[in-house]
Structure formats: C-alpha cells, structure tokens
Amino acid sequence: MAEAADFQGTSPSPARRWLRRTGAVLAGTPLLAGLLQLPAGSPAAAATPAAPPAASDNGSVAVSVDSLTPGAPTEGDTVTVSGTVTNKGKKAVTDASVGLRVGSLLDTRSSIDRVAKNSGDVDSPVGAEIDDKYTEKFSKLTPGVSQPYTISVPADELDLGQDGVYDLSVTLTGETSDQPWEQTLGVRHTFLPWQPDELDTKTKTAFMWPLVSTVHMTAETGSDEEQTPVFHDDELAAEISPGGRLDRMVALGKDLDVTWVIDPDLLASVEAMTTRYEIPGETTDDQNVVGGHQEVAKRWLTEVQKAVADKEVVALPFGDPDLASLAHHGTSVTGSLRHLKEATDVAARTVESILHVAPSTDYAWPVEGAVDPSIIKVSTSAGADKVIVRGDTFEGGRDLTYTPTAPRPIGGGTTAVVADARLSTVFDGDMTRASASTQAVQRFLAQSLTLALQTDRPRSVVVAPQRTPSAAQAQTMAEAIGALQDSTWSQSQDLTAAAKSKPDPAAGTEVPPASAYPKSLRKQELPRSAFEQIARTQDKLDRFKVVLSDQSRVVTPFGRALNRGMAASWRGRPAEAAIYRSGVETYLDTLIGQVRLIEKSETKLSGRSATIPVTVQNNLVQGVEHLVLRLTSTNPTRLEIDGNAYEEQPVAVSGGHSQSVKFTTNANANGRATVVAQLYTQDGRPYGQPVTFDVKVTEITATVMLVIGGGVLLLVLAGFRMYTQRKRAAARQAEEREQDDAADEAGAGTDADSDGAKNPEASEERPTEESAPDTRGDAPEQPSDPAPDTAPESADPSGTGERVDR
C-alpha cells in the first residue's frame, strides 16, 4: 500500500544508505519488576508481581525436567516425567537414583513464585519419595556427562488429596568417593496442578495473541506506476517463511481460542511483498535489488486470513506507537497526537482490506501494560476507551484475598483491562531449552488453578504476553493455552467479553502516579527530539504536498513512515530509531529538492528594458503546480521588475521537465543590481532555496539620450542645408547656361570681326568659348571647383552600389 513520489536522474536515496549502515541492536527491554505477594489472607495477597529471575542449581548434579505429561492430570491418568541429569562435580557419582517426590500443597500464588525462584535448591523442602519402583537408577554418573531419565507414575500413586497445586520434585540421590553415603545431590522443583473434577465456577480466560513485528518498510518507493516499495532489509521474509517466528505464530494460533492483536503495519508490509518490492543491494553502487519472496508473502497472508476467520481481531494503531513515550515526551510537541489519530484511523481500513474481517480499534496497549495518568490520557485521545494494563500497575484492592476480575472503570468512560501479571510474564526468557519451556507451562497452569480456587466469584482473566514472542516462546504459549483449554477450572473468552464483564466493586481503580512508572521502562522511551524531528518532517511534507498534482504518491508513504517512527519496537534500539527517522526526513528533503530553480550567472542589460528568464526544473515523475515564482530587485531605483520592486508569476511544470519564466525589467541607471528569485507556495510560504544573481546595467540614461538625439538632429539639419545649397547652385548654373544660349542665338550671322571692331575691349577681355578653360574635360577637378551638373534627384530607392548624396 505504500506509495511515494520519486524522481528521475538522481543518485540512490541517502535514507537507504543510512539504513544500510545501522549499528548493532542494543540490549532488549528488561522485565518489569514487581513486589512479592504475601500469603493469602493479607491485603497484599492478590498482588501480581512479574516473573522472578531464573533459579540457579546449587547441587553437584543438575536435574532438568524436559517434559511433564499431562500437565494437569486427572484421575486415571499416568504422569510421565522425563529429562536429564548431569554431573557437574569433579567426582563420579555412584549408586545414583532418580525419583519423584510430592511436596506440600501450594495454596497461594506467591508460594508458587518462591518455588519457581528456588527450583534447583537442594536445601528446599521436598516430600517423601514415591515408591521405589518408580525410580531410575544409574550405577555411575561421570563428571560432565548427561544421562536421560524417564519416570511414569499413575496419578493414583501420587497420593494427591486436596485439589490444588503441588510441589512435584525430581531428585537425584547418590554418593561420591569423598562422601560415601546416600545424599541428595540434585533437585528440580516443578508444579503439578490437581483438579480432577470440574469447578462449579470456572475462570474465564482471554489470551491475547499478538502479531507484531519491527519496522521493515522505508518511505521510499520506485518511480514506476505501481510505486515499488523499498524495504530496508529482508528480515520480514525470514519471519514469515516456514519455521519463522510469524509463521509459527499463525500456525499455532489458528487452533487456539485466542484474541488476535495485530499491528496493521505488519499486514501492510507483507502485502507490499506480494508483488514487486526492493531491498538495498550488497554492492558498492547502492542499487536496489528485487526481493524474491512474493509467494511466501501470499501464502502467509492466506494463512492469516484462515486463522482469524470467526475469531476476534483487535487492531492496534498503525505502527504500534509507543504510547508512554508519546505521553511523556511527545505531547509538548505540536502535532504529535495528530499522528496517533491518523494511525488509529487507518488501522481498521488496513486490517479489513487485507484480512476481510472488521477489527476492533477500542483498545490501547502501552508497553508492558505500565501506565500513569498521562499515558491513560494519550491512550484514549484517539478514540480508544479501553486500556490494557498489567496487574502490577494496579493494586488488587483493599482487603482483597483474591485476584479481582479484569475490567476496572477508571473514570471518563475509560476501562482499564487489567491483564494478570504472573500469567502474562511467565513466557518471558529463553524458551529454546525444553526444561525452561516445560517449567513455564507448568507454572502457568499452576498460577491459573490457584487463581481459580481463590474464590467462588465469577471472574474474567486477561493474559497479555510479550509483544513479539519468539518461535520458541510461541510454541510454549500454545502448549500452555492448549492445556488450559482442556482443564477443568478455566474456559476461554475473547477480550471484548472480558472487558465488558461486571467489574469487582472492591477492586482498585486508582491510576498510579507518574512517579510510580518503572524507571527501567522510562530509560528506553523515545526522547523529545524524536518527536521534534517527526514534527519537522511533517511540516516539510505539508508544504511539499500542496504543489503536487498527485498528493497520494507522497502523503501515504510518508504518513505511514512517520507512524513507524513512533513504534514501540524502537525501545532498546535508540541508534537504529534515530537512523530511521533521519532517513525519512533526508529522503523527503531529496524529493523536495527535485523541484528547484536553476542557478544563473551574471546577466547584462544593454537597453532601457529587457526580459530576464528564470528556469524552474522538475525532476519528479509527477507534475507540480500551485507554485509562484517571485523575482525581486534589491535595488529598484536602478532596476525595476515590471515597474515594481518585484513581480510574481504562477508556475506549473510537468514531471521530468523544465520551464523558463520571463520577467520584464526596466533600467533607470547604469551599474550592478542584485536580483533574487524564489519559489513560493500559494499560501506564501517559501519553497526551496532562492537563487541570487547580478544584473549589470549598461543602458543609456535619459540625459545622454537627449544629447545624442540633439547631435543627430544637428547632423540631419546640416545635411539638409548642404543639400538645399547644392540644389540652388545647380539651378543658378542652369539659368546661366540658358542665358548664354539665348545670347548666342541673338548674335547669330554677325561678323565676328565687326563685333570685335565695335567692341574691341570685349573681344580682348572676354575669352571665347573655345579658349575658355575646360572644367568638364580631363583636367583634374579641384575642391574649390563648382559642382558638376546633375539630373533632378529621384525619390526611388537607390540602386545597388549607387552613391546617394544627402
């Protein structure tokens, strides 16, 4: 379902490179410590502490109980116990014998805790050994060598009387060379619930079955039409593959009466794997490689759909946000609660679209069920009215000698659904060893039966195990639930029915103060800086999305990535959490930077007005719009932009294209002016980085233009005067020639001599035409010579190469 904008022609995402360099995972979340319960009859008898630390063997021989069947025997059953004995000492053990002993009745829940804490203590009291025929003997136990044993005893031979839980011990007796007498060298205490008859009032037990994982998807997607999702690793494929943790959770849970509690992010991530998905490559070029577990993802989702059919499904907010971190560090950061609301709103749609069931979104589940007033307030701010807490958070109630029912009204229409701490934490720890798994199952059954025998009041009990059980833990949980479903004292119930059951009026309903919140959990919370970074990224996203033609390509993947940045699974992994959040922000910055202004060098203007082009480049695969480009002159007295200090023009650019926007400028003076180009969103917020460049103005000022204009005018007038003078001179010469011609005609036929005689002075002083200097002949023309005759000037354009006098 993840979708994101992508871009063309850019290098691999910095977010992907950061995620590939994630540091080692830090230590896991420590268990929440609880107070030991006092014996029944005291007000604290109903307290529910967390699991005690694992016991250590203090005998020279280690005894393990790897199997106990049936876990809760009834009349006619045969109890079979098997395991190993290992000589830890330096001396061989001879005449060794493994036998069963039934100890005292454990009639309080705290007494079960004490036995579990000291399950390997040879000094702990044990009962008498059962008949010698139900023993297994070893002639010699060599140091460092383990030997298996199996003992089967009819339940009738165990001499079990009153209903309840018994301390069942497997002991090894023998002697060594330095202590040659029979003695107990090793012991393992376990629990044997005995309730052969159906109880009149059975406890109703709701078991939460969590499908939650860590964060696997990034905000990045491909630029193709399908927006190929990108995962920062391929570990999810291992979890859903046959034998993987999540595969075992589904395979085991489908046959159990449980309430499925699901993080929608897990479903969305697996669904994204059903088609094409990518993960970072292992080569140095940082190129993604295509993931190849599509069929595995399809099969797993199909199995989940079958498993949850006709079962109750609770959807956590998308990404399983850390409610305690949000309450303690995020509420003071604007917008943090908005992400919780979005995560809750999208949860139901995601689960229903993938699993085809309508989930409940009425529940909030803080980490390890630890709460204070601020956590309750945040948990219910997104619409949840039921908060799953743990019994070691709430007091059982004054003067109560039993564990009260799960629901507790805490005001404001909110119900605290109190999960039993002992039943919820019994599966913590390493369950890969058969002995640890068997002990957890027996302890779970023992606590459940003891709780049921506390009172005849009808009660609903909720079990909320760890969020991400390992495959071995899931196997142990399934064995315990299966045995409980077949028991005579409990019946299954879904979570909603438990939450709606009638509250116990004597149960405590006061939410503990903030000072009571466990320090070990507070140390693992997301810091305030994490929520500030998420808010900063959201602000960038809000500004970015308004310019996109298809906002869903960005809003959906980044919105879900921000939800993942608040996940509870980041606890204990602060370095990885910081890298993930920074990767999301860095990738968003990269996308935003794909819409930018192209840098410009100095621009020269040689006229009074000119246009300046500014180029907007869009390297995204989708178009951008609703942008405004503003060009501002820092010296408007020298250079104006369209008659003002600045001008704005709308911008829309198709994906993978560039567009030049032209601005008209007017120069008022010579010199250099600085111009700033900046993109803005339509709401006036700057987008991207500005581009600053200089404009060198070399245009002519108005005064100089007047002077030049006057000079040109004078030249034109002078040329016109010269032209008219030449015209007049030519006209006079033509007139004189006409007069001469007329005179010649008048004296035609007269004797030249008589003329000369009559006017001798004239004949002497006036040269004849033949003797006159020839001004049109071959003699060189002088500058002072009169202009030659010309024809009237034509108004037609002059011919090529023709000289035109003006």
Strand content: 15-25%
| Sheet with the most strands, sense and barrel status | 5 strands, parallel
Number of strands: 29
The oligomeric state of the chains shown is single chain
Alpha carbon gyration radius: 50 Å
- Backbone structural class: alpha/beta
Shape: elongated
* H/I helix tally: 20
Which blocks of ≥5 consecutive residues have pLDDT under 50? 1-56, 750-806
Estimate percent helicity: 25-40%
Cα distance, first to last residue? 83 Å
Average of the residue pLDDT scores: 84
Walkthrough of the structure:
There is one protein chain. This protein is of the alpha/beta class. It is 31% helix and 24% strand. The protein has 20 helices and 29 strands. The strands form eight sheets. Strands 8, 11, 14, 19 and 20 form a five-stranded parallel β-sheet that branches. A hairpin with a 7-residue loop joins strand 12 and strand 13 (288-290). Helix 5 (264-273) crosses helix 8 (336-355). It is elongated. It starts with 13 loop residues before the first helix and ends in a 41-residue tail after the last helix. The model is unreliable at 1-56 and 750-806 (pLDDT under 50). Pfam families: DUF6049.
